[in-house]
Amino acid sequence: MRTPARPRWYPLFGVLSGEYEPRANETHPWQRKGSVTDSPAWSEQDSDTYRRLAPVAVPSRDHQLATIATLLPFEPTDAFEIVEIGTGEGRLSQTIAALFPHARITALDGSESMRTATTERLAEHGHRIRVDSMDLAAEDWHAHLEGVDAVVSSLVIHHLDGRGKKRLFEAAGERTSARSAFVIADLVEPASPQALELFAASWDESTRLQAAAGGQDELFDLFRSTEWNIYRIPNPMDQPSRLADQLQWLKGAGFEVADCFRLEAGHAIYGGYKGGAGDGRIDYASALRTARAALAS
């Protein structure tokens, strides 16, 4: 068993937590439960844990879904093609399908159980939905981006390192239509030790409050026992990049207008638009109602 590599943003953790010196035969606290030290990769066990934790561990999940949908540059009656990278259980795609009844959605995920859940959830939308497999680190799936009008992703691309993210943005810039947008919700790298501690503490508090509000304190216990808060205990699977860098990469890839639209507990919603993108006409209140219905179903 080889010694785990230090996370790229290790120096910030070193400032707050002391020196990190792993030993080859030791299981380290930043390693996700059930993962394999010499092959850190997302597993079906991780998918199951995520499904249990998401209702409390994703900060303001209903607002996250609504924000992404509201940022799409389309009228409710527009016909367009969109790809979701890492669809999970399909709740974001469900929200978009309900708000845009003429949208055609390709939902991609590397987990068989997640693809099954998405297929079942979106069955009512019939031919408008395509669910397919993907290996995030590979690039063959980039063919799905050819000619599409929007790309969305929620809590997935932080599994790519900076170079991988930049290549993904470039592929999207080259392949998507002139009116396209790329909207992302994801963990971002803190730019300072103070920001790191803020992200860690606010994520803990958000999860604790959401678990308590639902009478599910055991989920906060699970959040802590699985060491899900990477701002507390880093994990080699998780490689968030600085927000400022990602906005520059988006601009460099042809998404001329790039910005951050929301940031809570280290979870940012950001993205970019090409010059031919429209303004969009989905109001936030409608998007929020639709997102809450998707989460409740």
What can you tell me about this protein's structure?
Mean pLDDT is 88; it is low at 1-39. With 297 residues, the chain is of the alpha/beta class. It has a domain at 57-189 and 239-296: Rossmann fold (3-Layer(aba) Sandwich). It has a seven-stranded mixed sheet with strand order 3-2-1-4-5-7-6, with helices on both faces. It contains ten helices and seven strands. It is globular, with a radius of gyration of 19 Å. α5 (112-121) links the parallel β2 (103-109) and β3 (129-133). α2 (44-57) packs across α8 (217-225) and α4 packs across α10 (284-296).
- Shape descriptor reads globular
Identify the CATH architecture of one domain. 3-Layer(aba) Sandwich
Annotation field: number of helices: 10
Biggest sheet features: 7 strands, mixed
Protein structure class: alpha/beta
Helix content: 40-55%
The helix/strand order is HHHEHEHEEHEHHHEEH
In CATH terms, the superfamily of one domain is Vaccinia Virus protein VP39
The rounded Rg comes to 19 Å
Tell me the β content. Answer: 15-25%
How much is the average pLDDT? 88
Strand arrangement, largest sheet?
3-2-1-4-5-7-6
Which ranges are low-confidence, i.e. pLDDT below 50, for 5 or more consecutive residues?
1-39
Q: Please write the CATH class name of one domain.
A: Alpha Beta
Distance between the termini: 43 Å
Using the coordinates shown, work out and report the CATH topology of one domain: Rossmann fold
Number of strands: 7
